[in-house]
């Protein structure tokens, strides 16, 4: 006979599991802290719902029927699921985690943020996976966070979305990067030289609207004479080596490539606010323990990069 379509509640499922394990109405009543008559009533109801005796007497004790034995595994799985719903995990152990985490970030963070995060991630969660995706891939980071495809987004926005949770990570000032043999001699980059020079710029992934640096410079001084535009930040330093262009970027990015290539860093000759880096996440993962762990890992990695001996900043409310 098939299972009745009537609703079977979690209490009956727990009674069935305990009866099948204990093989006795009295022992099941003792384990569940109920009276024997109450367990007998529950067993009678279970028999009606399943169309099977479930437990039959064999001598002085009871044994499960074939149907009862077949139900032991699925009943245990159902109870496990109920316990997960009613009593969620109170801790997250990255050391045994096997899930995949995804972070959306622009490619200009790759040379300093990403290696530091990967180093910490692999040390803490050796069996888990970490995937980085572009901020605007697959419909944008906002959609990715909302759908759950992306766990976290890292970037620098003048006006971060106000419907997402946000945590500032660090500030980075704007500087100029150019080749060592640039016609503008070291320490001589003033506003006039900056305005007359040819500039290199990198577009956003979508190519629409002004970039973060353009917005920061809009009220600061003369417009840049952008003569070369590239799609990726990682190409820019190698173009600078072969040209007399100037690239306005962050100190972290400029310092990294100045140590690798024949490039030098000059101060930006106009006043511009620093760029602030954030990590963003959606309400759907705000309380998830594994997401809290990932956010803390990113915060600690950035703290080491900036050389700040400070405690991790609390999550935004």
UniProtKB/TrEMBL annotation:
GO terms for molecular function: DNA binding; DNA-binding transcription factor activity. Pfam families: HTH_1, LysR_substrate. Residues 8-65 form the HTH lysR-type domain. InterPro entries: LysR-type_TF, LysR_HTH_N, LysR_subst-bd, WH-like_DNA-bd_sf, WH_DNA-bd_sf. It comes from Rugamonas aquatica. This is LysR family transcriptional regulator. Keywords: DNA-binding, Transcription, Transcription regulation. Belongs to the LysR transcriptional regulatory family.
């Amino acid at each position: 006979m098939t299972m009745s379509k009537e609703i079977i509640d979690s209490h009956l499922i727990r009674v069935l599991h305990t009866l099948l394990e204990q093989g006795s109405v009295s022992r099941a009543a003792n384990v569940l802290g109920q009276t024997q008559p109450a367990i007998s009533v529950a067993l009678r109801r279970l028999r009606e719902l399943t169309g099977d005796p479930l437990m039959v007497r064999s001598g002085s004790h009871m044994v499960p029927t074939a149907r009862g034995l077949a139900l032991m595994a699925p009943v245990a799985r159902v109870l496990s699921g109920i316990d997960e719903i009613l009593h969620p995990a109170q801790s997250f152990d990255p050391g045994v985690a096997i899930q995949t985490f995804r972070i959306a970030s622009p490619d200009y963070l790759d040379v300093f943020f990403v290696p530091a995060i990967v180093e910490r991630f692999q040390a803490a969660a050796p069996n888990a996976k970490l995937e980085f995706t572009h901020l605007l891939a697959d419909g944008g980071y906002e959609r990715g966070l909302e759908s759950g495809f992306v766990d976290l987004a890292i970037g620098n926005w003048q006006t971060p979305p106000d419907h997402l949770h946000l945590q500032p990570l660090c500030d980075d000032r704007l500087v100029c990067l150019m080749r060592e043999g640039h016609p503008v001699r070291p320490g001589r980059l003033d506003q006039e030289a900056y305005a007359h020079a040819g500039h290199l710029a990198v577009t956003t992934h979508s190519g629409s609207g002004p970039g973060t640096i353009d917005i920061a410079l809009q009220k600061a001084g003369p417009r840049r004479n952008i003569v070369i535009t590239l799609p990726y930040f990682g190409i820019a330093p190698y173009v600078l080596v072969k040209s007399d262009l100037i690239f306005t970027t962050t100190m972290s990015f400029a310092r990294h490539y100045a140590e690798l290539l024949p490039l030098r860093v000059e101060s930006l000759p106009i006043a511009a606010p620093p760029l602030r880096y954030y990590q963003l996440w959606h309400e759907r993962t705000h309380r998830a323990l594994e997401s809290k762990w990932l956010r803390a890992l990113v915060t600690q990695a950035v703290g080491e990069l900036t050389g700040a001996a400070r405690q991790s900043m609390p999550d935004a409310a």
